[in-house]
Design brief:
Length: about 325
């Protein structure tokens, strides 16, 4: 069923995506991750819409739920003309699959349909971590999930695929310029990345893969580490940039006979958008240079000034004793 289906609520999605018999195999990893994609949180509104491509195949009535490069490639081809913000794949992605995803992202970004990947990744060595970093060094990854989450009330952590679904839904419900760095994750009680990967923890941090830490073991408080992406920038900066790149495509004016592709006309629209972005706190400033490609095309070069975030506060304390006179 290699078609795109759209859902804006969990109830309809779960009902329509069952097998003909009304059952669902435990092997249907995507189906079982839906509840985490659609979950809502105290500080996140959750997803508004999910586009789903079912890659399950059937041969003589036997369902094949395995994830292959070929199935992924077919699904990615369907997405090329779609507009979405976050890509989640119900799989633990290796180098080959990540490379295919990055190829699609590059193509869509060029056409001003930017998005970022939030999915689980396979890491077993420093070399694998550095390879993943290299794939997304120029952008395209928001959260490369390495560590399971244990939700309050659960006896065991989620598997990594469901954890990535939870992360995708959690981030989708936040403003694009809202950083998750250093934030306590409500209703999450584990697991620490350093506990999960003691020998690779520093490599995960340095290469921009997603990680979390146990901040208070007694209270079971978990916080997001510095959420640096493989580009070296905070995820909030990447999401803000992607939002603006997509928004400045100005698709609403395509085909409008009253809009001429002149430097002055498009420049006026960019000026309006710039003021809007500043008002929303997305940027501090935006420089742009607009030139005409031909009588039907304009080209714009952008420089965005996006506020950075504080990742560390260092205190240097000097104590000066005060004297008290006793009378």
């Amino acid at each position: 069923d290699n078609q795109i289906k759209s859902y804006n609520n969990i109830r309809t999605a779960l009902a329509e995506l069952k097998d003909e018999e009304g059952t669902v195999s435990e092997e249907a990893k995507g189906y079982h991750s839906l509840e985490y994609l659609f979950s809502k949180h105290d500080n996140s509104l959750g997803v508004e819409e999910v586009l789903i491509i079912n890659t399950t195949t059937s041969d003589a009535g036997t369902k094949d739920y395995t994830s292959t490069n070929e199935k992924l490639a077919d699904a990615l081809d369907l997405l090329e003309d779609e507009h979405f913000n976050i890509l989640y794949v119900a799989d633990i992605l290796d180098e080959s699959k990540l490379t295919n995803i990055k190829t699609l992202r590059n193509s869509m970004y060029k056409n001003q349909f930017p998005w970022g990947l939030i999915s689980a990744v396979k890491i077993e060595s420093k070399e694998e971590i550095e390879t993943i970093n290299g794939i997304f060094k120029t952008g395209g990854a928001y959260k490369l999930v390495t560590t399971p989450k244990q939700l309050a009330g659960d006896a065991e952590p989620l598997n990594l695929i469901n954890t990535a679904a939870w992360e995708a839904g959690y981030t989708a419900g936040k403003m694009v310029n809202e950083s998750e760095t250093g934030k306590t994750i409500n209703n999450v009680i584990g697991v620490g990345t350093k506990d999960e990967y003691p020998g690779l923890y520093q490599d995960i941090l340095e290469n921009g893969l997603h990680s979390q830490k146990i901040y208070n073991r007694r209270l079971k408080e978990v916080r997001v580490n510095n959420i640096k992406t493989p580009t070296g920038k905070d995820m909030s900066i990447e999401r803000t940039k992607d939002f603006i790149v997509g928004d400045l495509a100005l698709r609403d004016i395509y085909g409008d006979p009253n809009t001429k592709p002149t430097r002055e006309g498009i420049g006026g629209m960019f000026s309006y958008k710039k003021d809007e972005y500043v008002r929303l706190g997305l940027i501090e400033d935006m420089d742009y240079d607009i030139t005409a490609c031909n009588d039907k095309c304009v080209k714009a070069e952008l420089e965005l000034f996006i506020p950075d975030i504080i990742t560390e506060v260092r205190l240097f304390v000097k104590v000066t004793p005060s004297s008290v006179e006793v009378v």
